[in-house]
Design a protein that fits this description.
about 350 residues, alpha+beta, 13-stranded mixed beta sheet, globular, disordered N terminus
Length: about 350
């Protein structure tokens, strides 16, 4: 079992940023990564992916953003105990309840809706990420890109489970469903061209994740989170599309094509606010929800800017402007800012090469 220290995962995954781009590769044939030097694709790399995906849960109001204080070693030991003996863990929890709450949507009760993020983020999101990473590694000179893609995907999934586990010691059914079922199935599913083609060409799926940044003076990780967009263009009017944006939230709305490259989208819905314990045996968790709305501006499905409003205590208003919009000569940074309900502002700057740096109290 992999034991992650506080810094090792970042040191290990810094090496992909040193790879040299291979301009001879025709990225136009890719499904999800096209090597754009603007928008959300400009900041797409394994390091930002780790920060966005592995620490997705720290967006909740009741989670710490100081990622260097999480008990990784303790969490890893508990995770391994559950993964090495999944049958016994599920037997204690109950097979029907496990399948009902974690695997198949037999009920729409919120306390048994753990299957919802499993399908959205682990199956579809995780599978799409595997393909996008494979395309990223290929563009950056890897001869067998599926190998580092699998390693990176597995790394962020495992680290995500460690962060979600926190300091819990005991049986935990969630990582069993996530890793053994949805994560593996996602990679297998998106290994087929027809699946990638459907999500890429029919649903116009894209990774619209945040711009993760370490904020001074606390050193906390802010403005992170894994998010995806989907646009299904109307057959009778190809300038308009049904829009869906998902991650720690679920927004539905509409997208309008301004011209051949630029689009504007709007969505409203709900997002997770806090998690709470539903059942002690097996550590079954659920989440409380609050309202959420977002406005998005993209170029060729690479997000240029987004504005979020939500009922969160942490960040009431969040603005992200990605590289390619604001320019200082040849330098085009990403910028972000958030207004917190206590009346404080927090803001940061990112580049296409490294995670961002911010300031706020």
């Amino acid at each position: 079992m992999l034991i992650f220290s506080r810094l090792s995962v970042f040191l290990i995954l810094l090496f992909p940023l040193l790879l040299k781009a291979d301009d001879s590769i025709n990225v136009a044939d890719n499904y999800f990564y096209h090597a754009y030097d603007y928008g959300s694709e400009a900041v797409y790399n394994p390091v930002n992916l780790i920060l966005n995906c592995s620490y997705d849960v720290i967006q909740l109001d009741n989670r710490s953003r100081n990622i260097f204080d999480y008990p990784y070693s303790k969490s890893a030991k508990n995770l391994w105990k559950n993964l090495k003996d999944p049958i016994n863990v599920i037997n204690k929890f109950g097979w029907y309840e496990f399948i009902e709450s974690e695997i198949f949507p037999f009920t729409l009760k919120s306390k048994k809706g753990q299957w919802w993020p499993n399908y959205q983020l682990h199956l579809i999101g995780g599978g799409m990420t595997y393909t996008a990473l494979k395309e990223w590694y290929e563009y950056h000179g890897c001869e067998y890109p599926w190998i580092p893609s699998v390693v990176t995907t597995a790394t962020y999934h495992i680290l995500n489970e460690l962060v979600e586990n926190q300091d819990h010691v005991g049986r935990n059914v969630d990582p069993i469903a996530d890793i053994y079922f949805f994560d593996i199935l996602g990679i297998w599913l998106f290994s087929y061209d027809n699946v990638n083609k459907f999500f890429s060409e029919e649903l116009n799926m894209a990774d619209w994740s945040m711009q993760p940044s370490f904020v001074l003076p606390s050193g906390e990780l802010h403005n992170n989170g894994q998010y995806f967009s989907v646009k299904w263009y109307l057959p009778f009017y190809d300038k308009a599309a049904i829009f869906y944006y998902f991650g720690m939230n679920a927004l539905i709305g509409a997208s309008y094509r301004l011209n051949e490259e630029y689009n504007i989208s709007f969505g409203a819905g709900l997002r997770a606010r806090n998690n709470f314990l539903v059942k002690e045996e097996g550590r079954q968790l659920s989440v409380s929800m609050v309202w959420n709305a977002g406005l998005f501006y993209d170029r060729n499905n690479s997000l240029l800017a987004s504005l979020h409003l939500s009922g969160l205590t942490d960040n009431f208003v969040t603005l992200n402007i990605y590289p390619g919009v604001v320019k200082f000569g040849k330098f085009s940074p990403g910028l972000w800012g958030a207004y917190r309900r206590g009346g404080n502002f927090i803001f940061g700057l990112t580049t296409v090469y490294t995670p961002g740096i911010g300031y706020g109290r």
